[in-house]
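Aim 2, interim progress: modelling of the adenosine-5'-diphosphate-bound target.
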Amino acid sequence: MAEIRLDKLRKAFGETVVAVNDITITFPTSAVTCLLGPSGCGKTTLMRIIAGLETPTSGEVYFDNERVTTKSPAERNIGMVFQYPVVYKGINVYRNIELPLLEDKLDAAERDRRIKDVAEVLGLQDVLYRNVSGLDNATLQKIAVGRAVARQPKIILFDEPITNVDVNSRVQLKAALKRLSKQHNQTIIYVTHDQTEAMTLADEIALMKDGVIVQRDNPRRLYNYPNDVFGGWFLGNPGMNFVQYEVNGGAELGGPLFRKPVRFENRGGDRTVSVGIRPEYVQIHPQVAPDAAEGKLLRKSIVVGGQYLLAIQLGEHTIKAKVAPEIGEVVGESVWVECPLEAITLFGEDGAKIETELKPA
Ligand code: ADP
Ligand code: MG
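Predicted structure of the complex, ligand included:
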């Protein structure tokens, strides 16, 4: 077991690119933390620094309380699996998984036990004695995972390992990763740009943007209570609705979202605030309803899970709502939109969440 602690870590490439910008975070032992963020936000750079493949411009890396910032990858004793699987050509699957174990000076029986163990979890039994040449990409990736895991390192880093793998193998690989991580109490950082992958795999998600970790939380909390507009926007399919209000330091919100005025505490004196609400929390009524504002249904489309995604015009805003299929709204006609106060997050001018409770005025 080993926790990974990063202290004021920074990595600049040349004069203009800051890939990792002053990150301080601890990745807990025996947990899968997904590092989630859009392409180019610095995920791979961060992984490479933790692995020792890249030297930070400044800041430190600790495994438990040991400073490893200047140690070589080999001295760090961690497992790594990347987007493009690394396998040794010309030998069979068994030998591929066995090679690193030879370095660890394990006896033959222990090696055999570990290889067969991971092969079973990963579903590699049938190809165990096949030459790796000619195996498909998903299988190669399983071999790479097996090889990293069989050594039972305290830390394993995965950098988008299933991006290039077909859907069925993805499900299988994800299930295997979960099982393996719990078996050996490893500290796992799993990089992905795919929110569904992160939501299903992670104990905790660290959300990354422009070289910074914006929020680290369990998947539910991150989804329901983003502390920055970025989390609201990036997570969800589609993401959160944002409706901007000019409040000029005031503390009251009205139309178009609210039929009756709503109050909040504007301690920061923000001039504009954004009301954030996820499409699935917007309630739609086909007739006039208390606390519901009238809007016009612009579009209606069917989405995954048999639900409907509605686009509704409210004043000069268009907001999205995800609803069950049985409501009989008609495109072009009026619908009544209700935004439950407890489902709303308010964001300030700087995009950060405003800590306040919304109440009827
Ligand atoms: P991600 O993995 O999230 O897609 P990366 O860590 O690969 O992001 O890249 C972060 C930023 O750093 C990008 O702007 C990328 O172009 C830049 N970058 C990464 N590696 C290098 C490098 N070796 N030299 C120069 N710029 C780099
Ligand atoms: Mg990357």
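The domain at 4-224 is CATH 3.40.50.300 (Rossmann fold). Residues 13, 17, 19, 37, 39-45 surround adenosine-5'-diphosphate (ligand 1) (CB under 6 Å).
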